Request: fold
Amino acid sequence: MSLDLEEQEKLDELKDAWKRYGNFIVGALSIAAISYAGWQWWHHTQQQKNAEAAALYGALQTAQKSQQTKIVTDSAKTLTEKYGSTAYAARAALIAAASNVQAQDNKTAKVELQWILDNSKEDAIKSVAALHLAQILYDENDLNGALALLNAAHDESYADLYNDLKGDILAAQNKQADARAAYKIALEKLSADSPYRQVITIKLNAVAGVSMQ
Reply:
């Protein structure tokens, strides 16, 4: 069937457009297909990594209950190095740090806690790690280092614990007024029925020069 002049011109334009953009269109479609396949592969890989990390984390918890510190430490190291993007890594490092503190290996515990601060995306876990690291530094008499951690932004749900430890550090620095202020905040943030209120009250009275007798 013959084409009129206008139809022939449109056909020629389409042919010309295909010559100019055909490779681009095919390339774009190929990229889209590859991207989808890549996403499927990534999703499958992430699921597999999470399953492997979960199994390793379970073994770590079992070792922690029986106080097998080396196994706990090694398992946590594997999780942070190979499965650092999973939620299990930071939790494993936190458990390992607690185990190493109990085993009087503060050096290893500090490395594990610092890993959490540097790599975790969860504010709550980072806040717990910072609190534990500050406690270690306080025990090692690095008062300024401990205070720096406590003064950094943290999850408000831990404000009572942060201010309690801050009060201890400030009292050790003979900053009695600042220590009192910290203890008062700790009491304000602490639940009314917490048995720990009595402990903080005793410390508050001590820096205030109030006798308990």
Notes: The mean pLDDT is 84.
